[in-house]
Design goal:
The chain has helices spanning 4-18, 39-46, 124-132, 145-153, 159-164, 174-184, 197-216, and strands spanning 23-28, 34-35, 51-57, 60-65, 70-74, 79-84, 96-102, 107-112, 118-122, 257-262, 265-269. The chain is α+β, with helices and mostly antiparallel strands. The strands form three sheets. It has a five-stranded mixed beta sheet with strand order 2-9-5-4-3. A four-stranded antiparallel beta sheet has the order 1-7-8-6, with helices on one face. A two-stranded antiparallel ribbon has the order 10-11. It is elongated, with a radius of gyration of 20 Å. It binds zinc ion (ZN). Residues 249, 251-252, 254, 270, 272-273 line the site of zinc ion.
């Protein structure tokens, strides 16, 4: 599932490739991925606009249109935003949900095999309202160690669950929560209220380091994630705990433990390094 580094990679790819391009035609093949508007409305509001800017909020790619509207794409499990040459295809075989044809003949295609991802069209004010309901961005300098510590320690829920709660903190999913907790030496099930302020500061540093390293390597390709050119990310080689239950901890050699007790998601940790 694309998390912050993967969404950031896609947004940067799109910024470099198609920022400033005009959308001359829009095809909606699968209207069920649309949110906050219907297909007719979507075509009418997007056709003729310019793609002014691309950014990211949490795990979503955000395109700002010259009309002031925002396109908010949440890839979830199998969604991909691809920049392609050539004409728009109309067959269903490649799981195309939406296509934007650009003035220079290229297309931006949203493909989604399972169609659990979404494409929302929001007005400027609606976007701000949506964004305000999501927690702070972990890479934002405004999130100080003090603020992060307060956020973590305010809850008795498991620290890993807190990290993945989008209302408290943006963009972190199962992969980076597991990795950051291993780096910081904190057991994923420990209640947030029992994480010391010094440990919280260490955790924020670990989280930022793991996110920055993954962005540098264009994300983690597990299963279906692809960047805007169909390529895979390289961070999968750097994973220390995620997907490695039963293997030795690279720091101390103890066998890593895995369970599904937190929200049914795979939690992997070192019983020795992470008290
Ligand atoms: Zn260890």
């Amino acid at each position: 599932v694309p998390e912050l580094p993967e969404a950031e990679t896609i947004a940067r790819d799109l910024r470099g490739a198609v920022r400033g391009a005009t959308v001359v035609a829009v095809l909606v093949h699968r209207a069920d991925v649309l949110r906050e508007c219907d297909a007719t409305n979507f075509v009418a509001r997007v056709t003729g606009t310019r793609l002014e800017e691309f950014g990211r909020r949490a795990k979503c790619i955000v395109a700002t249109l010259s009309s002031g509207d925002r396109l908010v794409v949440t890839p979830r499990f199998t969604g991909a935003l691809l920049v392609e040459g050539g004409s728009m295809r109309v067959d269903d075989a490649d799981y195309t949900a939406i296509q934007l044809r650009l003035g220079d003949g290229r297309t931006v295609r949203y493909r989604d095999v399972r169609r659990l991802g979404t494409v929302a069209l929001m007005s400027g004010p609606r976007f701000l309202e949506w964004s305000a309901a999501i927690g702070p961005e972990p890479l934002d300098r405004g999130l100080t160690a003090g603020r992060f510590s307060a956020l973590v320690r305010a809850s008795k829920r498991a620290i890993k669950t807190i990290l993945m709660d989008q209302r408290r903190l943006a963009g972190i999913g199962n992969i980076y929560a597991n990795e950051a907790l291993w780096r910081a030496g904190i057991r994923p099930t420990r209640p947030g209220s029992r994480v010391k302020p010094t440990e919280a500061a260490q955790l924020l540093d670990s989280l930022r380091a793991v996110l920055r390293e993954s962005i540098e390597l264009r994300g983690t390709s597990f299963r279906d994630y692809r960047d805007a050119f169909g390529g895979r990310g390289g961070f999968v080689e750097r994973l220390e705990v995620y997907g490695r239950g039963g293997e030795p901890c690279s720091r101390c050699g103890t066998m890593l433990k895995a369970h599904h007790k937190l929200d049914g998601r795979a939690t992997v940790y070192c019983p020795r390094c992470q008290p």
